[in-house]
Amino acid sequence: MTLTALVTAGGTREPIDDVRVLTNLSRGWFGAAIARALVERGVATTLLGSRELLRAPERLDPRLTLVPFESYADLAWELERHTGAARPDLLFMAAAVSDYTPVRQEGKLPSSADELTLTLRRTPKLLAGLRARCGPDAHLVGFKLLSGVSRDELVATALRQSRENALDLTVANDLQDLAGDLHPVVLVTPEGATVPLDGRREEVARRIVDVALRRRAARRPELTLSGEPGPEADPAEAQADALARLAADAHLAAGLVAQRSRTGGLWVAAAGRLAEQGVHVALTPEAPPRLLVQGAEAAPRAAALGAWLLPRAPGVDAFLRVGGGLVLEDAAVDFPYPAGSLEEAGEVHQALARAARAGRWRGGSFAVRLGGPEALLGLSAGDAADLSAQWAAAAQEQVRHLEGVGASARAHALEAAPVLEGTRVVGVVGEALAEGWTSLFVLPHARGRGLGDRCAEALDRRGARVGVHEACHATAWWLGRGWRLREVVDHVALLDPPSRRVDLQPAASACLVDALGGRVLLGRRRRAPWQGCWSFPGGRPEAGEDAVACALREVREEAGVEVPVATPAAEHVVVVGAPTADGPAFRIASQVFLLLDAPTPTPSDELEPEWVPLDEALARSPMAPGTRRVLRALVR
User: Tell me: the pLDDT tens digits for 304-333?
Assistant: First the structure.
C-alpha cells in the first residue's frame, strides 16, 4: 500500500485591513524540498503551501498535490479537512504559522497618523490537536526555529515541543546558522536523542525524510491482556520491586525495570516503581513475540525491549532503562528507533555484537547508550544487589569528600546519582538543581584509567555546566579539556562545556603508528603552552588546508617524517585548552596513520620526537590531555 504524506510549507499572512497583512520571512522552500524528497521515495504527498510558495513552480515537484493557504484560519481549516477521514501516514508541519493575528479592521486604515496601534490575539497551537485527529499510527514531525540561542537551549525547546504534542520527531534549527542554500538542523526525538544534519537544503531534506521513514516503519509488538494473574510466589517479583526502588533512590529516572521471571517471562515496572499488584508479561514463541500482560490493564511498551532481548542475551536476568546518572557505555546504538520498538531492540543487539567483536564487551552485564541521555543496562544474577551496595558506599564516600574540602552543606543540597562504567558504580554526579550545574566525583579506586575524560565527554554531550569547589583544585583539569570558566559563586567555579563554545580554534595532529613494531611517534614540546609535555606532532591549519593536509605538513615540519599514505586509518577529535582561564582552546582532529616502517624522526624547534612502545606510551608524563585521550582510544 502506498504511503501518504501531508506537508505544510510557507508563511501565513494575517490581514490587518483590506490591503495590509502581518506576515513572516518564510518562503517555504525547505518544506517544498521535504515534499519533493517524499515524492522521490514513492510517497503520495499533498503540499499545503502558502500562495507565495505556489507561485514559484520551479520549487515544486510536478507530482505533488497542491493546496493553497493564505492565513492561519485557512491553514487550520485545510489541516482539519486533510486529517479527517483520510488520515495521512506522515505529517510534516514545516509552515511558519503566525502566533498572533490582528483584530481585522474593515476597509483601509488611514495612513495619516504618525503611530498605529494594532490589537493582536494569540492563535491556538495547531500542533496541539494533531495527535488526536491523526490517530496513534500517524508519524507527526514538528519544526522549531529559534534565533541566537545555544544548542542545548534549542534541543531542550524542541524536546519539550515533541513531548507536549506527542510528536514523533522535531526538526530544530537556529535562524543565524542558515546561509544561502546551507540548512543545518538537529533532529530531536521524544526520547531525547539528537541527530545533527548539515549540508544543503535539498540534501538535508532527503535525510530528514529517511530518518522519519525509518522511525515510522519501526514495529511495535502486540500487547494482549490475558485476564490472568502473574505467577504466584515468584521471587523475581520481589527482585524487580527492589530494582525499581534502587532506580528511584539513585535518581536514575528509570523508564523500564524488567526482571526475568521463573516462567521465562518478565516482571516489569515503569516510572521507577512496580505496580502494587505486580505486572507480569508472558512471552509467546511467535516472531515477533506477542506480549501477554498478566495482573494489570496494560504494560509499558518499553517492556518490548526486555522481552525481545531476554532470549538473546544469555546470562542477563534484568533490564533497567535509565535516563539519569551518568553511564559510560560498553556500546552505543547507531540509529535512534522509537522506544519500545523491535528495531530498537535489534539495534541494542547489534551494538553489543560490534562491541564484542572489538573486544569492548565479553558477554554478561552490559550498558548500551540508546541515544540522548538514555541507556539500557543488562544485569546478571546478583548484579542488582551488588549495584545497590556499591551505590550506598559511593554516596557515602562523596559526602565524606565534600566534608573534607569544607563543603559539607553541598553534600545535602545536591541530587546525587551514580556514575556507571558498564554496570559498576565508579563515581557520583550531583545535580545542583536550583543553580543549574553538575558536579563530578570519581571514586579514588577508579581513577587513573581515563574515566574522568570519559565523564567529561559525556557531560559535554549533554551540554551540562559543571561546578568545581575551589578546595578540590580541579579547575585546571577541566580547563585543560576545553571547558571555559564562566564565574565563581560561593567558592564554586562554574565551567561551560566545549559544546557551548564558539571560540574553539581548529587544529590537527598526526598519530603515527608502527603497525609491525607496536610503537607510536611522540615528542616533547619545546614551546608554550605545553612546553615539556609529550604530544603528537601537530598545529593549526594554514589557509585552505583540511585536517589531513595539516597533519601531514606538521609531522614533516616538526619530526622530519614523510608519511607514505595520504588517507588516515582513523580520526579522533578532542578538545583541549590551556590550563589557565584566559588561554586558548583548540578542537584537534587527530589523524591516525598506520605505517609498515618507522622512519627515523628529526628534532625541530617545536618537538623532540621518538618512537615509543604503545604499552609504555601512556606512562609518559607530563602529557598533553588530548594526546592521552587518543592513546587510550588506540590501546582500548
Answer: 788 888 888 888 999 999 989 999 999 999
